[in-house]
What does this fold into?
Amino acid sequence: MQAAATERLIAPARNIEGSLRLPGDKSISHRYALLGGLASGTSKFENFSTGADCTSSLACVSALGARVTRKDDGTVEIVGTGGALTPPASALDCGNSGSTMRMLSGLLAAQPGSFTLVGDASLSRRPMERIRKPLAQMGARVELTEGHAPVTIHGGRLTGIDYIAPIPSAQVKTALLFAGLQADGTTTVHEAVRTRDHGELALRAFGAKVDRSLDSVSIAGGQLLTAIDGAVPGDISSAAFFLCAAALFPGSNLIFDALGLNPTRATLLDVLTALGAHIGVLNLEEKNGELVGTVQVNAPPKGLTGTTVSGALAAQLIDELPVLAAIGPYTQNGIRIRDARELRVKESDRIALVSRNLRAMGAEVDEFEDGLDVPGGQTLYGAEIDSGGDHRIAMAFAVAGLRAQGGTLIRGAESAAISFPEFFELLDRVAVR
Ligand code: S3P
It folds into this structure.
């Protein structure tokens, strides 16, 4: 169901202060939902993501025969299907969630029967050929409409493949590992850029053997999964908005407890450090293979410097690039982004929307096919922001609004709930006005 359109007025802030414990990581929650649905036994996940995207994954595994309960304290319990998913009577609704559609396709490709996956208008525009091709090589019949959803999968017996990923994508890698888990023989995915490895770590946590080399990951088929109990680490991509906000105000002090610090996701901490922010990490521990810790951020007294994000860094920071670009005008030397063509096929064309909204706020910005140049040393003015129904655009410009002259009106603010329903409330809590 589509949430009613809402607007949010962001007033400028003087500082950012406080401490936050964030809802569970979206990427990890999706994987736990899907594998919990496939496993034998009852899994329990504390701090499961509160975002609508992960609710889509839970609804799909529930429609496929798993029993899903969400407790008042945020814990999700899943009674798995013991490896046998049942084709539902109607289409599986993935909502706005590319992760659900792509990773579930991998899981279903090995299951006997036909499954149709649908999504909302944004998801129905996103490329699905990237999963169709390798899954077809493994033996599944996958039907798309001009490369897009609806996706219909005629699943069955699969054979492992050796696949060289043409674009860096953790969703595609994970889909192939989920299919490979149930295939005959071994499936290997070679990736030129090491993308987030939550799929590998989750598979191991559920008892599967996954082999990793420097640039590839392999899984043998025919392995069975056993339910787990776990706590999902706080979402570092949600923290990104607050980290960037805090980095804008000399004197800020923000602490995150139990934040996910998986090295394939924590690149923003290195970038902010390179920009001059002070980032402290404490109490590191490992939970189901995932690193978790306390993070403290303080801004540099003279403001952030500037940087270029390109190559492998662009792929690793892909979800954080909108907010990094949105704070670019407030840096001394600007933010330059290249090799980030994938931003054009996310929930919106994020390159186009970031530049349009920065211009609406009075900034100078140059748009490229694969990135942006956002010069530093600029003043932004409160304006009307078009989120394009994209959660990360809505939140990125709420952060930009904190240091603008005048109020910033975020249109389509409800989209934040796709990954982070608590965002505006928490922003109000830590923004000192
Ligand atoms: C994700 C991978 C990335 C990312 C998305 C979540 C995942 O997408 O942008 O928000 O959980 O695997 P791609 O795999 O398309 O790069």
